[in-house]
Write a structure and sequence with these properties.
A: Rna Polymerase Sigma Factor, Chain: A, 2 domains, about 0% strand, B: about 250 residues, alpha+beta, OB fold (Dihydrolipoamide Acetyltransferase, E2P), 9 helices, 5 strands
């Protein structure tokens, strides 16, 4: 039996979309939820604004499909476009990214940073959110990608267009900064 | 929500075609070409810097003006600035080629410096450093000024060193005009000049004479050396040949 389009790999879907625009809907279906969550996490935009950015992102993905480097994971490539489009939107609005992390995400971060025992307290959840909001943009970006989007170093390197070594350094510094702020 | 978003997006792209693959390839090749061009320009600056360092008369200029002043004036700031500028440009270009962001800064710097020095040495050997230096002296007024400053480091008659252009020659003497337009009468009796050398090759050339000041504008030469700057000579190859003849023909008495 022929596999359905939704079972195809990302690479196959790219080729099929280039042959027939209608097939792009399968790429949209596959990525829209995670990209919407990512936009909200790194920008703090509300649902409707984030959805507007998401639509722009998919238009850009479609327009640039021929530029997809097959040596990359498709997901890294779409995350990169999403990251750039979100930052560009924030620049346009002249606002600093506001932190927006949901409770379940806070638990994940607390687990990774060994402060999970106390996370049930609402105060602590607020505190973590505050700390994330105070971190430099470059540190918050890598923490979100590493602990919430669960990307590995190579993927983060491809998304942020930084050498893998730099990504490792940024993550270590981000953790240190976070803990330092937390212990204050 | 899902259908709504999908429909909106499909509606937005219905009249759009993906950008061509060629456009992406062209952009990638353009960045690679620009990075290679930066290496070539960097190598040319290296060849000129080698030329300046190798051709500067360190011992004589040190005697005339002191080693510290020599270092300050001879350091090729102009070329160093261009070299550094093109390191930055090359870094920017490499970071923008496909996958270039994976290459760490120290690797880009290392490859750039190694390749520009290697190629720069080759270019120096074939005379590119010489010709670019001459061209710059002739066409860039600020650079001409810097070259003159370097040349003036070799002017200190009290210390037994003068530099200038040969205006006239006789059997045992020559006339030299220095950069302050003083005309010197130089006795060359003590300088051995090979009889088969046509002395007129020295005419209009800039030379360094060392020996002793014996009068107000009179000088007793012990030795003569050619000086290439500020590049008023003929074209590159002719210039190189001219220098070779001068070096073979004029023996320097130490």
């Amino acid at each position: 039996m022929e596999p359905s389009l939704s079972d195809k790999t990302d690479g196959d879907l790219v080729i099929l979309t280039l042959e027939n625009q209608e097939n792009f809907v399968h790429i949209i279906d596959r990525y829209n939820r995670q990209l919407l969550a990512y936009i909200k996490r790194i920008s703090g935009l509300g649902y409707e604004d984030a959805e507007d950015v998401l639509q722009e992102v998919f238009v850009k993905i479609y327009y640039n499909l021929n530029g997809f480097n097959t040596k990359l994971k498709f997901s890294s490539w779409v995350y990169r476009i999403t990251h750039n489009a979100t930052m560009s939107e924030l620049r346009k609005r002249k606002v600093r990214p506001i932190n927006y992390v949901e409770t379940e995400d806070l638990v994940k971060i607390a687990d990774e940073l060994d402060i999970s025992k106390e996370i049930e307290h609402k105060d602590l959840q607020n505190e973590i959110n505050n700390i994330l909001g105070k971190l430099d943009k470059k540190y918050r970006e890598v923490l979100v990608l590493k602990f919430l989007e669960e990307k590995d170093y190579n993927e983060i390197s491809d998304i942020l267009k930084k050498p893998v070594g730099t990504v490792g350094t940024l993550i270590n510094r981000a953790k240190k900064q976070f803990k330092k702020q937390y212990e204050k | 929500m899902k259908n709504n978003i999908s429909d909106n997006i499909l509606d937005k792209i219905k009249d759009t075609k993906p950008k061509s693959r060629f456009a992406f390839l062209a952009k990638n090749y353009a960045f690679w070409s620009a990075a290679l061009l930066s290496i070539v320009i960097g190598a040319i600056t290296v060849s000129v810097m080698i030329f300046i360092f190798v051709n500067h008369e360190w011992a004589l200029a040190g005697r005339a003006s002191g080693m510290f002043k020599n270092l300050v004036y001879v350091l090729p700031y102009f070329w160093l600035v261009i070299f550094l500028l093109f390191i930055i440009i090359a870094y920017y270009e490499v970071r923008h080629v496909r996958g270039g962001y994976k290459i760490a800064l120290p690797i880009i710097l290392g490859v750039y410096i190694f390749s520009t020095f290697l190629l720069g040495f080759g270019l120096y050997k074939v005379g590119v450093g010489n010709s670019v230096e001459e061209f710059s002296v002739d066409h860039a007024p600020l650079y001409h000024h810097l070259a003159e400053k370097r040349q003036q480091l070799l002017q200190n008659p009290e210390q037994g060193i003068i530099i200038g252009k040969v205006m006239g020659m006789k059997e045992d003497s020559l006339n030299l005009v220095d950069f302050k337009e003083n005309v010197w009468d130089v006795n060359t009796e003590e300088v051995f000049i090979s009889p088969h050398v046509k002395m007129d090759i020295l005419l209009d050339k800039i030379i360094i004479i060392y020996g002793e000041k014996v009068g107000d504008r009179e000088f007793e030469a012990e030795g003569i050396k050619p000086y290439m700057l500020p590049g008023r000579g003929p074209g590159m190859m002719k210039g190189v040949r001219g220098m070779k003849e001068m070096r073979e023909g004029v023996r320097i008495i130490e």
